[in-house]
Amino acid sequence: MIPKLRTLLFGCLVLTLSQQAARADTVDNFTLVGDGHTVTWSLPGAASFPDFSLFNFFYESAPATIDGISGYSIGGDYYTYFYRSLSVEFDLPASIFGASSFPLAGPQFTNISFVAAYNPPPYLQEDVIGGFNPGTYSLQQLSAGPPVDFTLTIAQQTLPDTPEPPSLLLLATGALGFAWLFARQVHRAFALHPSPTCPTSCASKARKGSASPDLSSSNRSPFA
Q1: What sign for the dihedral angle of Cα 148, 154, 155, 160?
Q2: Total-model pTM
Q3: CATH architecture of 26-158
Q4: What are the boundaries of each domain within the chain?
Q5: Spatial contact of 59 and 75, defined as CB atoms under 8 Å apart
Q6: Which of 20, 41, 140, 146 could serve as 161's disulfide partner, Cβ 3.0–4.6 Å?
Q7: Strand 88-91 vs strand 148-158: parallel, antiparallel, or unpaired?
């Protein structure tokens, strides 16, 4: 019975861990520093854009913290390798940065891939998955005056796994199986030895060649 129990528990554990591994998500944490300001925000590690015909850039927005104060938001056109003139163009508070449109030039830090289209033909044949390359990038603000240097750092973070309902159901099934096998073993042992001293006395009688323990209906467990 014990090998069966171990096999059941091991199988539940392996399936649960494999499902949780598949659910691991990542986010990219951004830090933009320059012109006396620091802006931080986070975006998903990847985003899908169905039916996107001209993929020079993709737009993302998120809550942001500016100079240690939360409550702001930042939007951005993140340019791909199809458009080499800019790296990104942010929407930032004009009260802080002097203008709401904030273009930055420098190395590009996006990556894209193509998957089968969400909609079948006559729509587009492929959807686009956009993401970011972790690292530190030197960028320059494009303005009428002298260029202003900025540094953008992208750090990838793996979020803690959250068990999905199927995983919880699998764990519950394993626990119920364990409880059932344990109760069955206890029931059988109690049926054969209803008294706490019965195992010792039975063994003693067996050594002396006595008859087997009395298992008549009067001495049986009521649960037998």
Answers
A1: positive
A2: 0.60
A3: Beta Barrel (2.40)
A4: 26-158
A5: yes
A6: 20
A7: unpaired
